[in-house]
Protein backbone atom coordinates (compact mmCIF):
# COMPACT_ATOMS: atom_id res chain seq x y z
CA UNK A 1 0.00 0.00 0.00
CA UNK A 2 1.29 3.44 -0.89
CA UNK A 3 1.82 6.01 1.86
CA UNK A 4 -0.56 8.99 2.06
CA UNK A 5 0.76 12.04 0.23
CA UNK A 6 3.66 13.47 2.19
CA UNK A 7 3.22 17.22 2.26
CA UNK A 8 6.04 17.49 4.78
CA UNK A 9 8.81 16.51 2.31
CA UNK A 10 10.83 18.58 -0.13
CA UNK A 11 12.99 20.28 2.49
CA UNK A 12 16.38 20.01 4.18
CA UNK A 13 17.43 18.97 7.67
CA UNK A 14 18.44 22.24 9.32
CA UNK A 15 21.16 21.61 11.88
CA UNK A 16 23.80 23.42 13.93
CA UNK A 17 27.06 21.63 13.05
CA UNK A 18 29.73 21.55 15.77
CA UNK A 19 33.24 22.41 14.60
CA UNK A 20 35.11 23.39 17.75
CA UNK A 21 38.78 22.45 17.22
CA UNK A 22 37.88 20.54 14.03
CA UNK A 23 39.75 20.93 10.72
CA UNK A 24 38.08 22.50 7.72
CA UNK A 25 39.67 22.70 4.25
CA UNK A 26 38.64 25.59 2.03
CA UNK A 27 39.72 25.36 -1.62
CA UNK A 28 39.61 28.72 -3.41
CA UNK A 29 40.32 32.27 -2.25
CA UNK A 30 37.72 34.52 -3.91
CA UNK A 31 34.95 36.55 -2.26
CA UNK A 32 32.74 33.50 -1.65
CA UNK A 33 35.67 31.79 0.10
CA UNK A 34 36.02 34.82 2.38
CA UNK A 35 32.39 34.42 3.54
CA UNK A 36 33.00 30.72 4.13
CA UNK A 37 35.90 31.71 6.38
CA UNK A 38 33.52 33.93 8.43
CA UNK A 39 31.09 31.05 8.92
CA UNK A 40 33.77 28.56 9.89
CA UNK A 41 35.52 30.96 12.31
CA UNK A 42 32.12 31.53 14.00
CA UNK A 43 32.12 27.81 14.78
CA UNK A 44 35.72 27.83 16.15
CA UNK A 45 37.28 25.46 13.62
CA UNK A 46 40.83 25.52 12.33
CA UNK A 47 40.97 26.43 8.63
CA UNK A 48 43.38 25.19 5.97
CA UNK A 49 43.06 27.45 2.93
CA UNK A 50 44.46 26.33 -0.41
CA UNK A 51 44.46 28.84 -3.29
CA UNK A 52 47.08 30.43 -5.57
CA UNK A 53 47.92 33.91 -4.25
CA UNK A 54 47.10 35.59 -7.56
CA UNK A 55 43.41 34.66 -7.13
CA UNK A 56 43.05 35.86 -3.52
CA UNK A 57 40.28 38.39 -2.89
CA UNK A 58 41.25 41.38 -0.70
CA UNK A 59 38.76 40.24 1.96
CA UNK A 60 40.26 36.74 2.06
CA UNK A 61 43.75 38.23 2.30
CA UNK A 62 42.63 40.44 5.18
CA UNK A 63 41.24 37.46 7.11
CA UNK A 64 44.42 35.40 6.56
CA UNK A 65 46.48 38.29 7.95
CA UNK A 66 44.10 38.89 10.84
CA UNK A 67 43.86 35.29 12.10
CA UNK A 68 47.26 33.64 11.43
CA UNK A 69 46.80 31.04 14.19
CA UNK A 70 43.32 30.09 12.98
CA UNK A 71 43.98 29.97 9.22
CA UNK A 72 46.87 28.02 7.65
CA UNK A 73 47.30 29.36 4.13
CA UNK A 74 49.01 27.54 1.22
CA UNK A 75 49.76 29.46 -2.00
CA UNK A 76 49.07 26.57 -4.41
CA UNK A 77 46.33 24.49 -6.00
CA UNK A 78 44.64 21.55 -4.22
CA UNK A 79 47.09 18.63 -4.37
CA UNK A 80 44.91 15.49 -4.12
CA UNK A 81 43.07 13.03 -1.84
CA UNK A 82 45.80 13.04 0.83
CA UNK A 83 44.72 16.55 1.83
CA UNK A 84 41.19 15.35 2.59
CA UNK A 85 41.72 12.46 4.99
CA UNK A 86 42.65 14.56 7.99
CA UNK A 87 39.76 16.97 7.42
CA UNK A 88 36.36 17.07 9.14
CA UNK A 89 34.77 19.16 6.40
CA UNK A 90 35.68 20.49 2.93
CA UNK A 91 34.33 23.62 1.20
CA UNK A 92 35.13 24.50 -2.40
CA UNK A 93 34.60 28.00 -3.79
CA UNK A 94 35.94 27.75 -7.35
CA UNK A 95 35.02 29.09 -10.78
CA UNK A 96 35.95 25.76 -12.33
CA UNK A 97 33.06 23.30 -11.95
CA UNK A 98 35.05 20.25 -13.06
CA UNK A 99 37.74 20.92 -10.48
CA UNK A 100 35.04 21.22 -7.77
CA UNK A 101 33.41 18.01 -8.97
CA UNK A 102 36.67 16.04 -8.66
CA UNK A 103 37.24 17.26 -5.10
CA UNK A 104 33.64 16.41 -4.13
CA UNK A 105 34.05 12.86 -5.42
CA UNK A 106 37.19 12.37 -3.32
CA UNK A 107 35.35 13.70 -0.26
CA UNK A 108 32.42 11.39 -0.76
CA UNK A 109 34.77 8.37 -0.95
CA UNK A 110 36.50 9.48 2.27
CA UNK A 111 33.12 10.23 3.95
CA UNK A 112 34.08 13.85 4.57
CA UNK A 113 31.11 16.30 4.40
CA UNK A 114 31.52 18.68 1.45
CA UNK A 115 29.92 21.83 0.02
CA UNK A 116 30.71 23.11 -3.48
CA UNK A 117 29.68 26.75 -3.93
CA UNK A 118 27.19 27.25 -6.79
CA UNK A 119 26.87 23.51 -7.58
CA UNK A 120 23.95 22.36 -5.40
CA UNK A 121 23.84 18.82 -6.78
CA UNK A 122 27.35 18.16 -5.44
CA UNK A 123 26.64 19.40 -1.90
CA UNK A 124 26.07 17.36 1.26
CA UNK A 125 24.71 20.59 2.75
CA UNK A 126 23.79 24.15 1.81
CA UNK A 127 24.49 27.45 3.49
CA UNK A 128 21.71 30.00 4.08
CA UNK A 129 21.30 33.59 5.20
CA UNK A 130 22.49 33.91 8.80
CA UNK A 131 21.72 36.12 11.78
CA UNK A 132 24.03 36.11 14.80
CA UNK A 133 23.45 37.78 18.16
CA UNK A 134 25.75 36.21 20.76
CA UNK A 135 24.48 32.71 21.53
CA UNK A 136 21.46 33.22 19.23
CA UNK A 137 21.95 32.02 15.66
CA UNK A 138 19.24 31.99 13.02
CA UNK A 139 19.51 30.45 9.56
CA UNK A 140 17.13 31.16 6.71
CA UNK A 141 17.09 28.65 3.85
CA UNK A 142 14.94 28.95 0.72
CA UNK A 143 15.98 25.44 -0.33
CA UNK A 144 17.71 26.66 -3.47
CA UNK A 145 15.06 29.19 -4.51
CA UNK A 146 17.44 32.12 -4.55
CA UNK A 147 19.71 34.00 -2.17
CA UNK A 148 17.86 37.28 -2.73
CA UNK A 149 14.65 36.04 -1.07
CA UNK A 150 16.69 34.65 1.83
CA UNK A 151 18.27 38.10 2.27
CA UNK A 152 14.81 39.71 2.28
CA UNK A 153 13.56 37.26 4.92
CA UNK A 154 16.67 37.99 6.97
CA UNK A 155 15.90 41.72 6.89
CA UNK A 156 12.30 41.07 7.93
CA UNK A 157 13.39 38.91 10.86
CA UNK A 158 16.08 41.36 11.97
CA UNK A 159 13.44 44.11 12.07
CA UNK A 160 11.30 41.94 14.35
CA UNK A 161 14.11 41.41 16.86
CA UNK A 162 14.98 44.02 19.49
CA UNK A 163 18.71 43.28 19.66
CA UNK A 164 18.38 42.23 23.32
CA UNK A 165 17.65 38.56 22.50
CA UNK A 166 21.24 37.33 22.46
CA UNK A 167 22.00 38.90 25.85
CA UNK A 168 18.80 37.48 27.38
CA UNK A 169 19.54 34.01 26.01
CA UNK A 170 23.08 34.15 27.40
CA UNK A 171 21.81 35.03 30.89
CA UNK A 172 19.14 32.31 30.74
CA UNK A 173 21.95 29.91 29.82
CA UNK A 174 23.84 30.88 32.99
CA UNK A 175 20.67 30.47 35.08
CA UNK A 176 20.08 27.07 33.51
CA UNK A 177 23.65 25.93 34.24
CA UNK A 178 23.35 27.06 37.88
CA UNK A 179 20.01 25.30 38.23
CA UNK A 180 21.48 22.10 36.80
CA UNK A 181 24.04 22.15 39.64
CA UNK A 182 21.17 22.15 42.15
CA UNK A 183 19.06 19.63 40.19
CA UNK A 184 21.48 17.49 38.15
CA UNK A 185 20.31 15.88 34.90
CA UNK A 186 20.78 12.19 34.00
CA UNK A 187 24.02 10.73 35.37
CA UNK A 188 26.39 9.70 32.53
CA UNK A 189 26.16 6.06 33.63
CA UNK A 190 22.46 5.55 33.15
CA UNK A 191 18.92 6.28 34.35
CA UNK A 192 17.76 9.04 36.70
CA UNK A 193 17.28 7.59 40.21
CA UNK A 194 13.90 9.33 40.66
CA UNK A 195 12.49 8.31 37.28
CA UNK A 196 13.02 11.84 35.93
CA UNK A 197 10.71 13.70 38.38
CA UNK A 198 13.36 16.30 39.26
CA UNK A 199 14.28 16.80 35.61
CA UNK A 200 10.66 17.45 34.68
CA UNK A 201 10.23 19.93 37.57
CA UNK A 202 13.41 21.71 36.43
CA UNK A 203 12.23 22.03 32.83
CA UNK A 204 8.78 23.27 33.95
CA UNK A 205 10.26 25.91 36.26
CA UNK A 206 12.72 27.12 33.56
CA UNK A 207 9.85 27.39 31.06
CA UNK A 208 7.84 29.49 33.49
CA UNK A 209 10.74 31.88 34.09
CA UNK A 210 11.24 32.32 30.33
CA UNK A 211 7.51 32.77 29.69
CA UNK A 212 6.73 35.11 32.60
CA UNK A 213 9.76 37.39 32.50
CA UNK A 214 10.10 40.12 29.90
CA UNK A 215 13.15 39.89 27.62
CA UNK A 216 14.45 43.12 29.14
CA UNK A 217 14.23 41.62 32.65
CA UNK A 218 16.07 38.47 31.57
CA UNK A 219 19.03 40.61 30.44
CA UNK A 220 19.30 41.85 34.05
CA UNK A 221 19.93 38.38 35.47
CA UNK A 222 23.40 39.03 36.87
CA UNK A 223 25.08 36.39 39.02
CA UNK A 224 23.71 37.75 42.31
CA UNK A 225 20.17 37.96 40.93
CA UNK A 226 20.46 34.40 39.63
CA UNK A 227 21.42 33.11 43.10
CA UNK A 228 18.49 35.04 44.60
CA UNK A 229 16.09 33.70 41.97
CA UNK A 230 17.19 30.13 42.70
CA UNK A 231 16.98 30.62 46.50
CA UNK A 232 13.63 32.39 46.54
CA UNK A 233 12.13 30.85 43.40
CA UNK A 234 13.38 27.36 42.61
CA UNK A 235 13.80 26.28 46.25
CA UNK A 236 10.25 27.43 47.11
CA UNK A 237 8.85 26.21 43.77
CA UNK A 238 7.55 29.64 42.73
CA UNK A 239 8.51 32.09 39.95
CA UNK A 240 8.90 35.58 41.42
CA UNK A 241 9.12 38.61 39.09
CA UNK A 242 12.30 40.67 38.87
CA UNK A 243 10.55 43.44 40.84
CA UNK A 244 9.59 41.04 43.61
CA UNK A 245 13.18 39.74 43.76
CA UNK A 246 14.57 43.26 44.00
CA UNK A 247 11.97 44.26 46.59
CA UNK A 248 10.58 46.95 44.27
CA UNK A 249 6.94 47.86 43.87
CA UNK A 250 5.33 47.03 40.54
CA UNK A 251 6.64 49.47 37.97
CA UNK A 252 4.08 51.90 36.59
CA UNK A 253 2.82 51.43 33.08
CA UNK A 254 5.34 52.58 30.51
CA UNK A 255 4.85 56.07 29.08
CA UNK A 256 3.94 54.74 25.65
CA UNK A 257 0.54 53.71 27.04
CA UNK A 258 -0.25 57.42 27.42
CA UNK A 259 1.63 58.66 24.42
CA UNK A 260 -0.46 56.62 22.04
CA UNK A 261 -3.47 58.75 23.09
CA UNK A 262 -1.56 62.00 22.66
CA UNK A 263 -2.58 62.73 19.03
CA UNK A 264 -6.27 62.24 19.87
CA UNK A 265 -6.05 64.46 22.99
CA UNK A 266 -4.16 67.12 21.05
CA UNK A 267 -6.68 67.04 18.24
CA UNK A 268 -9.54 67.35 20.73
CA UNK A 269 -7.94 70.44 22.27
CA UNK A 270 -7.20 71.91 18.84
CA UNK A 271 -10.81 71.34 17.76
CA UNK A 272 -12.09 73.04 20.91
CA UNK A 273 -9.79 76.03 20.45
CA UNK A 274 -10.73 76.44 16.76
CA UNK A 275 -14.47 76.31 17.49
CA UNK A 276 -14.07 78.83 20.33
CA UNK A 277 -12.14 81.20 18.08
CA UNK A 278 -14.72 80.89 15.28
CA UNK A 279 -17.62 81.52 17.63
CA UNK A 280 -15.77 84.34 19.34
CA UNK A 281 -14.95 85.99 15.98
CA UNK A 282 -18.61 85.77 14.91
CA UNK A 283 -19.75 87.29 18.18
CA UNK A 284 -17.61 90.40 17.71
CA UNK B 1 52.03 36.62 17.60
CA UNK B 2 48.61 35.90 19.02
CA UNK B 3 45.53 36.65 16.91
CA UNK B 4 43.35 39.62 17.87
CA UNK B 5 40.42 38.63 20.11
CA UNK B 6 37.92 36.66 18.06
CA UNK B 7 34.49 37.94 18.98
CA UNK B 8 32.99 35.94 16.13
CA UNK B 9 33.65 32.52 17.72
CA UNK B 10 31.60 30.48 20.18
CA UNK B 11 28.89 29.48 17.72
CA UNK B 12 27.90 26.65 15.40
CA UNK B 13 27.95 26.26 11.62
CA UNK B 14 24.28 26.46 10.66
CA UNK B 15 23.63 24.37 7.56
CA UNK B 16 20.82 22.78 5.56
CA UNK B 17 21.78 19.10 5.36
CA UNK B 18 20.61 17.23 2.24
CA UNK B 19 19.05 13.82 2.90
CA UNK B 20 17.01 13.06 -0.19
CA UNK B 21 16.99 9.26 -0.59
CA UNK B 22 19.63 8.90 2.14
CA UNK B 23 19.39 6.42 5.02
CA UNK B 24 18.93 7.62 8.59
CA UNK B 25 18.96 5.32 11.64
CA UNK B 26 16.91 6.42 14.66
CA UNK B 27 17.54 4.45 17.87
CA UNK B 28 14.72 4.88 20.40
CA UNK B 29 10.95 5.29 20.02
CA UNK B 30 9.87 7.87 22.63
CA UNK B 31 8.42 11.33 22.07
CA UNK B 32 11.78 12.87 21.17
CA UNK B 33 12.25 10.14 18.53
CA UNK B 34 8.87 11.05 17.04
CA UNK B 35 10.03 14.65 16.52
CA UNK B 36 13.25 13.39 14.95
CA UNK B 37 11.08 11.43 12.50
CA UNK B 38 9.25 14.67 11.55
CA UNK B 39 12.55 16.44 10.82
CA UNK B 40 13.98 13.57 8.79
CA UNK B 41 10.78 13.06 6.74
CA UNK B 42 10.87 16.80 5.91
CA UNK B 43 14.23 16.15 4.27
CA UNK B 44 12.95 13.10 2.29
CA UNK B 45 15.25 10.47 3.83
CA UNK B 46 14.46 6.83 4.41
CA UNK B 47 14.24 6.00 8.12
CA UNK B 48 15.26 2.81 9.92
CA UNK B 49 13.78 2.88 13.42
CA UNK B 50 15.09 0.48 16.07
CA UNK B 51 13.24 0.35 19.42
CA UNK B 52 11.46 -2.31 21.49
CA UNK B 53 7.70 -1.98 20.90
CA UNK B 54 6.96 -1.62 24.61
CA UNK B 55 8.78 1.74 24.67
CA UNK B 56 7.06 3.23 21.60
CA UNK B 57 5.32 6.58 22.13
CA UNK B 58 1.82 6.86 20.60
CA UNK B 59 3.09 9.61 18.25
CA UNK B 60 5.96 7.41 17.02
CA UNK B 61 3.54 4.51 16.51
CA UNK B 62 1.22 6.76 14.52
CA UNK B 63 4.05 7.87 12.21
CA UNK B 64 5.23 4.28 11.64
CA UNK B 65 1.67 3.33 10.64
CA UNK B 66 1.22 6.40 8.47
CA UNK B 67 4.45 6.12 6.44
CA UNK B 68 5.19 2.37 6.04
CA UNK B 69 7.25 2.87 2.88
CA UNK B 70 9.32 5.66 4.45
CA UNK B 71 9.96 4.10 7.87
CA UNK B 72 11.30 0.57 8.36
CA UNK B 73 10.59 -0.39 11.95
CA UNK B 74 12.37 -3.12 13.95
CA UNK B 75 10.95 -4.18 17.34
CA UNK B 76 14.31 -4.75 19.04
CA UNK B 77 17.33 -3.04 20.57
CA UNK B 78 20.23 -1.69 18.48
CA UNK B 79 22.33 -4.71 17.44
CA UNK B 80 25.85 -3.31 16.86
CA UNK B 81 28.24 -1.56 14.44
CA UNK B 82 26.99 -3.48 11.38
CA UNK B 83 23.80 -1.41 11.49
CA UNK B 84 25.77 1.82 11.14
CA UNK B 85 27.90 1.25 8.06
CA UNK B 86 25.10 1.55 5.53
CA UNK B 87 23.73 4.70 7.21
CA UNK B 88 24.25 8.34 6.23
CA UNK B 89 23.22 9.66 9.66
CA UNK B 90 22.38 8.25 13.11
CA UNK B 91 20.13 9.83 15.75
CA UNK B 92 19.74 8.38 19.24
CA UNK B 93 16.84 9.34 21.52
CA UNK B 94 17.37 7.15 24.58
CA UNK B 95 16.99 7.47 28.35
CA UNK B 96 20.17 5.45 28.83
CA UNK B 97 23.19 7.73 28.42
CA UNK B 98 25.74 4.90 28.37
CA UNK B 99 23.88 3.13 25.56
CA UNK B 100 23.84 6.42 23.57
CA UNK B 101 27.55 6.95 24.24
CA UNK B 102 28.46 3.49 22.86
CA UNK B 103 26.47 4.09 19.67
CA UNK B 104 28.09 7.52 19.20
CA UNK B 105 31.56 6.01 19.49
CA UNK B 106 30.77 3.45 16.79
CA UNK B 107 29.44 6.23 14.54
CA UNK B 108 32.55 8.35 15.02
CA UNK B 109 34.76 5.40 14.01
CA UNK B 110 32.64 4.81 10.90
CA UNK B 111 32.56 8.58 10.11
CA UNK B 112 28.76 8.65 10.22
CA UNK B 113 27.31 11.96 11.54
CA UNK B 114 25.51 11.39 14.85
CA UNK B 115 23.25 13.27 17.27
CA UNK B 116 22.47 11.98 20.76
CA UNK B 117 19.40 13.67 22.27
CA UNK B 118 20.15 15.43 25.57
CA UNK B 119 23.92 14.68 25.48
CA UNK B 120 25.39 17.70 23.66
CA UNK B 121 29.03 16.67 24.13
CA UNK B 122 28.42 13.54 22.04
CA UNK B 123 26.80 15.35 19.12
CA UNK B 124 28.28 16.19 15.72
CA UNK B 125 25.34 18.57 15.33
CA UNK B 126 22.40 20.01 17.28
CA UNK B 127 18.79 20.51 16.34
CA UNK B 128 17.04 23.85 16.92
CA UNK B 129 13.56 25.31 16.80
CA UNK B 130 12.25 25.14 13.24
CA UNK B 131 9.82 27.09 11.08
CA UNK B 132 8.63 25.67 7.78
CA UNK B 133 6.56 27.41 5.11
CA UNK B 134 6.90 25.54 1.82
CA UNK B 135 10.42 26.14 0.46
CA UNK B 136 11.22 28.53 3.34
CA UNK B 137 12.88 26.93 6.35
CA UNK B 138 14.15 28.82 9.36
CA UNK B 139 16.18 27.36 12.22
CA UNK B 140 16.72 29.06 15.55
CA UNK B 141 19.63 27.84 17.67
CA UNK B 142 20.52 29.14 21.12
CA UNK B 143 23.75 27.11 21.07
CA UNK B 144 22.71 24.96 24.00
CA UNK B 145 21.24 27.77 26.12
CA UNK B 146 17.84 26.19 26.42
CA UNK B 147 14.99 25.07 24.18
CA UNK B 148 12.52 27.41 25.87
CA UNK B 149 14.26 30.56 24.61
CA UNK B 150 14.45 29.04 21.12
CA UNK B 151 10.69 28.45 21.25
CA UNK B 152 10.12 32.08 22.30
CA UNK B 153 12.28 33.35 19.42
CA UNK B 154 10.34 31.10 17.07
CA UNK B 155 7.06 32.65 18.19
CA UNK B 156 8.48 36.15 17.74
CA UNK B 157 9.65 35.36 14.21
CA UNK B 158 6.39 33.66 13.26
CA UNK B 159 4.51 36.79 14.33
CA UNK B 160 6.72 38.88 12.03
CA UNK B 161 5.95 36.73 8.98
CA UNK B 162 2.75 37.14 6.97
CA UNK B 163 2.38 33.50 5.95
CA UNK B 164 2.78 34.46 2.26
CA UNK B 165 6.59 34.13 2.29
CA UNK B 166 6.76 30.45 1.33
CA UNK B 167 4.45 30.92 -1.63
CA UNK B 168 6.35 34.00 -2.84
CA UNK B 169 9.69 32.18 -2.55
CA UNK B 170 8.31 29.22 -4.49
CA UNK B 171 7.16 31.46 -7.34
CA UNK B 172 10.49 33.33 -7.39
CA UNK B 173 12.15 29.90 -7.64
CA UNK B 174 10.11 29.12 -10.77
CA UNK B 175 10.96 32.54 -12.25
CA UNK B 176 14.64 31.93 -11.49
CA UNK B 177 14.59 28.50 -13.13
CA UNK B 178 12.90 29.92 -16.26
CA UNK B 179 15.40 32.77 -16.40
CA UNK B 180 18.29 30.30 -16.11
CA UNK B 181 17.01 28.60 -19.27
CA UNK B 182 17.31 31.92 -21.13
CA UNK B 183 20.63 32.85 -19.48
CA UNK B 184 22.38 29.60 -18.53
CA UNK B 185 24.85 29.56 -15.60
CA UNK B 186 28.37 28.07 -15.77
CA UNK B 187 28.62 25.01 -18.02
CA UNK B 188 29.47 21.86 -15.99
CA UNK B 189 32.74 21.49 -17.85
CA UNK B 190 34.35 24.77 -16.86
CA UNK B 191 34.40 28.55 -17.19
CA UNK B 192 31.69 30.83 -18.52
CA UNK B 193 32.50 31.82 -22.15
CA UNK B 194 31.66 35.52 -21.54
CA UNK B 195 33.68 35.78 -18.32
CA UNK B 196 30.47 35.76 -16.25
CA UNK B 197 28.87 38.95 -17.70
CA UNK B 198 25.54 37.25 -18.39
CA UNK B 199 25.50 35.60 -14.96
CA UNK B 200 26.06 38.94 -13.23
CA UNK B 201 23.31 40.62 -15.29
CA UNK B 202 20.95 37.74 -14.35
CA UNK B 203 21.69 38.04 -10.63
CA UNK B 204 21.24 41.83 -10.73
CA UNK B 205 17.92 41.60 -12.55
CA UNK B 206 16.61 38.90 -10.17
CA UNK B 207 17.62 41.04 -7.17
CA UNK B 208 15.73 44.03 -8.57
CA UNK B 209 12.58 41.99 -9.10
CA UNK B 210 12.74 40.68 -5.51
CA UNK B 211 13.46 44.14 -4.10
CA UNK B 212 10.91 46.12 -6.14
CA UNK B 213 7.95 43.75 -6.04
CA UNK B 214 5.78 43.40 -2.94
CA UNK B 215 5.60 39.91 -1.41
CA UNK B 216 1.90 39.80 -2.28
CA UNK B 217 2.70 40.54 -5.95
CA UNK B 218 5.37 37.82 -6.06
CA UNK B 219 2.74 35.23 -5.01
CA UNK B 220 0.81 36.15 -8.17
CA UNK B 221 3.63 35.11 -10.50
CA UNK B 222 1.78 32.35 -12.31
CA UNK B 223 3.40 30.69 -15.34
CA UNK B 224 1.86 33.10 -17.87
CA UNK B 225 2.92 36.14 -15.84
CA UNK B 226 6.45 34.74 -15.55
CA UNK B 227 6.72 34.40 -19.34
CA UNK B 228 5.41 37.96 -19.74
CA UNK B 229 7.86 39.28 -17.11
CA UNK B 230 10.77 37.60 -18.92
CA UNK B 231 9.63 38.83 -22.36
CA UNK B 232 8.86 42.42 -21.32
CA UNK B 233 11.34 42.71 -18.46
CA UNK B 234 14.45 40.55 -18.81
CA UNK B 235 14.64 40.80 -22.62
CA UNK B 236 14.38 44.62 -22.48
CA UNK B 237 16.54 44.85 -19.35
CA UNK B 238 13.88 46.60 -17.25
CA UNK B 239 11.86 45.56 -14.20
CA UNK B 240 8.17 46.35 -14.79
CA UNK B 241 5.72 46.25 -11.86
CA UNK B 242 2.91 43.68 -11.72
CA UNK B 243 0.43 46.43 -12.57
CA UNK B 244 2.43 47.46 -15.63
CA UNK B 245 2.62 43.84 -16.76
CA UNK B 246 -1.14 43.38 -16.37
CA UNK B 247 -1.83 46.72 -18.09
CA UNK B 248 -3.51 48.08 -14.94
CA UNK B 249 -3.27 51.64 -13.64
CA UNK B 250 -1.31 52.17 -10.44
CA UNK B 251 -3.46 50.96 -7.54
CA UNK B 252 -4.61 53.70 -5.19
CA UNK B 253 -3.05 54.00 -1.77
CA UNK B 254 -4.41 51.44 0.65
CA UNK B 255 -7.18 52.61 2.99
CA UNK B 256 -5.00 52.29 6.05
CA UNK B 257 -3.18 55.50 5.05
CA UNK B 258 -6.38 57.42 5.80
CA UNK B 259 -7.64 55.28 8.64
CA UNK B 260 -4.57 55.99 10.73
CA UNK B 261 -5.63 59.66 10.83
CA UNK B 262 -9.23 58.80 11.73
CA UNK B 263 -8.86 59.04 15.56
CA UNK B 264 -7.23 62.47 15.30
CA UNK B 265 -9.89 63.81 12.88
CA UNK B 266 -12.67 62.41 15.07
CA UNK B 267 -11.15 63.94 18.19
CA UNK B 268 -10.83 67.32 16.45
CA UNK B 269 -14.51 67.25 15.52
CA UNK B 270 -15.50 66.12 19.01
CA UNK B 271 -13.44 68.95 20.56
CA UNK B 272 -15.08 71.51 18.26
CA UNK B 273 -18.58 70.25 19.07
CA UNK B 274 -17.91 70.24 22.83
CA UNK B 275 -16.51 73.79 22.80
CA UNK B 276 -19.47 75.02 20.73
CA UNK B 277 -21.93 73.42 23.15
CA UNK B 278 -20.17 74.91 26.17
CA UNK B 279 -20.11 78.41 24.68
CA UNK B 280 -23.66 78.07 23.49
CA UNK B 281 -24.84 76.95 26.92
CA UNK B 282 -23.05 79.88 28.57
CA UNK B 283 -24.60 82.34 26.11
CA UNK B 284 -28.10 81.25 27.00
UniProtKB/TrEMBL annotation, chains A, B:
Siroheme synthase central domain boundaries: 133-158
The EC number(s) this enzyme carries: 1.3.1.76
Repressor found in the keyword field: no
Lineage top rank: taxon: Eukaryota
Protein's pathway: Porphyrin-containing compound metabolism; siroheme biosynthesis; sirohydrochlorin from precorrin-2: step 1/1
Broad EC category: oxidoreductase
Coiled coil, from the record: none
GO molecular function annotation: ferrochelatase activity; precorrin-2 dehydrogenase activity
The keyword Endoplasmic reticulum appears for this protein: no
Short name of any one Pfam family annotated for the protein: Sirohm_synth_C
Keywords: Membrane, NAD, Oxidoreductase, Porphyrin biosynthesis, Transmembrane, Transmembrane helix
InterPro entries given in the database record: Met8-like (IPR028161), Met8_C (IPR028162), NAD(P)-bd_dom_sf (IPR036291), Sirohaem_synthase_central (IPR028281), Sirohaem_synthase_N (IPR006367)
Transmembrane spans: 261-281
GO BP annotation list: siroheme biosynthetic process
Reactions accelerated catalytically: precorrin-2 + NAD(+) = sirohydrochlorin + NADH + 2 H(+)
Siroheme biosynthesis protein Met8 C-terminal domain mapped to chain residues: 166-240
Protein name, entry field: precorrin-2 dehydrogenase
Protein's organism: Mycena pura
